[in-house]
Design brief:
heterodimer, A: mainly alpha, Four Helix Bundle (Hemerythrin (Met), subunit A), elongated, B: alpha/beta, 5-stranded parallel beta sheet, 6 helices, 5 strands, 18% strand, globular, phosphoprotein (chain B), ST_Response_Regulator (chain B), CheY-like_superfamily (chain B), Response regulatory domain-containing protein (chain B)
């Protein structure tokens, strides 16, 4: 495949992530911060997000399995998850955290368990999509091309 | 885009401390500062921020997170002010402006409060307070 075609595919794919609401304007901000001085900035930040998220999801899962559920602790984890997902622009994960926190406040275990499942689904969905996006970027760079600038406004 | 603004010229001699326990936010905040040419370093919680100042360092700007282990941003801000630190301290957290915790944070001695995620435009508005100080 020639570089131009790969770049067009990359643009279409990125746009689809915004249109599906998986990503929001904050991700665009991160892309705009990236420059020649730090060409892997977005990949680095998103990798930190993956590490953080998986640890938080494990902690929340374990906390929900305890015989006496500590809703305050779970709420704190979910709040942290909301912060990190909004920092990278993972919009649907962030929205999942907002819903989850309401069930924590109500001390509703069933609601929390459902929200956790939903949150895991949203997280792994955006993770896979971002990995695909980064793989496309690597192919473009390997073929001697550069990553196009996106023109989307929010 | 921001590289030619007045804020950037004024920022050239500014130094900043990023206080945040999240490596994600540390990276983003440092990148935002670097892109404006602001020299910066990181503290992983409030206590580290206080310790850096105890060793004699000072900064024009401190970007202070609220929820952190060991010492949170409210306590750190209060401690720094009690030590006579007059740097511009901007609280940056994911709590809504209207929350009670944020009120306590502001009263601890903040010059500004911004809701996360921090963006270039929010940082530029914080920098205007640094220049006024």
């Amino acid at each position: 495949m020639e570089v131009g075609q790969m770049q067009r595919q990359w643009v279409d794919y990125t746009k689809s992530l915004f249109l599906e609401g998986l990503l929001d304007g904050q991700f665009l901000q991160l892309q705009q911060l990236q420059d020649e001085s730090n060409p892997d900035f977005v990949v680095e930040v998103v990798s930190l997000f993956f590490d953080d998220s998986e640890k938080l999801l494990n902690d929340i899962t374990r906390a929900l399995e305890q015989p006496s559920v500590d809703f305050k602790k779970i709420g704190a984890h979910v709040h942290q998850f909301k912060g990190s997902s909004s920092s990278v622009g993972a919009q649907r994960v962030k929205n999942g955290c907002i819903a989850f926190r309401n069930f924590c406040e109500e001390q509703n275990i069933d609601g929390c368990v459902r929200c956790l499942q939903q949150l895991k689904q949203e997280y792994y969905l955006v993770k896979n999509k971002l990995k695909t996006l980064f793989a496309m970027e690597q192919q473009i760079v390997a073929a001697g091309g550069s990553i196009p600038m996106l023109e989307i406004s929010f | 885009m921001l590289k030619s603004t007045n804020a950037n010229e004024a920022a050239a001699k500014i130094t900043a401390l990023v206080v945040d326990d999240s490596r994600i936010n540390q990276s983003i905040h440092r990148k935002l500062l670097n892109n404006l040419g602001i020299e910066n370093q990181v503290a992983g919680n409030g206590k580290e921020a206080v310790d850096v100042h105890c060793s004699g360092k000072q900064f024009d700007l401190i970007l202070m997170d609220m929820d952190m282990p060991i010492m949170n941003g409210i306590e750190a801000t209060r401690t720094l002010r009690a030590m006579g630190i007059r740097s511009t301290i901007a609280g940056v957290s994911s709590h809504s402006h209207r929350g009670e915790d944020v009120q306590e944070f502001v009263e601890a001695g903040l010059d500004d409060y911004q809701e996360k995620p921090l963006t270039s435009s929010k940082l530029v508005s914080i920098l205007q307070k640094v220049n006024n100080n």
